[in-house]
Write a structure and sequence with these properties.
Largest sheet: 8 strands, antiparallel
Number of helices: 1
Distance between the termini: 47 Å
Helix content: under 10%
Strand content: 25-35%
Shape: globular
Radius of gyration: 22 Å
């Protein structure tokens, strides 16, 4: 019979946690720490993330930080501001009141999707019509994503001036916010509301490009005056080259790593 191992104790000043034996047998393992739990929830596609916004910050701030692996400058325009009235998780959200406030980014290779898979995800409270994602430069149509909410609260996807997918769920009913997703997987582009499919384009072979000083969200990129968004934005993530798997409605922010 093997000799009984001595009980391990914590070292002075820190170190290994104490391991107590169970009935003289194997030592009891310490409980998982919060950090260990975070690692389990890490994003396996993080290196493919083109844009990651949580809209946290101080009340009234116009500063929005991109936490993607290749951080980009986010320019907040007009009266769009951070508000703490709907934080949900984190410290705030971006308020756009439908009067012309929006945000945009400089063009970047991360937004040139080509013919690859892609996923655009947003958590928002929408009160009026608005643009979710627009890659079109001013006055130009073409192989650009134009994804927006109609005056009836329905999702629409336009590409090359043509309506490609139309939703039927009025997202204005979700007064505590909803998760929206636009996803292309193997040539099939689908829209989702709270992970329920809401419109599909089954033959999307578009070679997607991106305009100068784009994408833009919260306003129509074609003329920077139409379809201003009214509501609050909490999470915004763009992933290039990956059609993310569907999961139950998330209760936390998108992963930072």
């Amino acid at each position: 019979m093997l000799p009984r191992l001595p009980q391990l104790t914590a070292r002075k000043g820190g170190g290994l946690p104490q391991l107590s034996r169970i009935g003289g047998g194997l030592p009891r393992l310490p409980a998982l720490t919060a950090r260990t739990a975070d690692i389990i929830k890490a994003d396996p596609f993080f290196q493919n993330v083109s844009l990651l916004l949580h809209f946290d910050g101080d009340e009234g701030s116009a500063s929005v930080i991109d936490l993607s692996p290749r951080p980009k400058i986010v320019t907040v325009v007009g009266n769009a501001r951070i508000t703490k009235t709907w934080a949900k998780y984190g410290t705030g959200s971006l308020l756009t009141d439908g009067a012309g406030g929006y945000f945009r980014l400089a063009d970047h290779a991360d937004f040139q999707f080509g013919t690859a898979d892609l996923t655009i995800e947003v958590e928002t409270i929408t009160t009026v019509t608005g643009t979710i994602y627009d890659g079109r430069p001013t006055g130009t149509q073409g192989n650009y994503i134009y994804w927006h909410v109609t005056g009836s609260g329905l999702l629409n996807l336009y590409v090359n001036s043509a309506l490609r997918a139309a939703g039927t769920i009025d997202i204005r009913q979700f007064t505590d916010g909803c998760r929206l997703r636009l996803e292309r997987e193997s040539g099939v582009t689908s829209m989702y509301v709270n992970e329920v499919i809401d419109g599909q384009w089954p033959s999307d072979t578009t070679n997607y490009i991106n305009g100068t000083a784009r994408p833009v969200a919260g306003i129509d990129g074609f003329d920077l005056s139409s379809n201003p968004s009214g509501g609050k934005w909490k999470e915004y993530r763009v992933t290039k080259g990956v059609a993310r798997p569907l999961f139950p409605i998330c209760k936390t922010k998108f992963s930072d790593y």
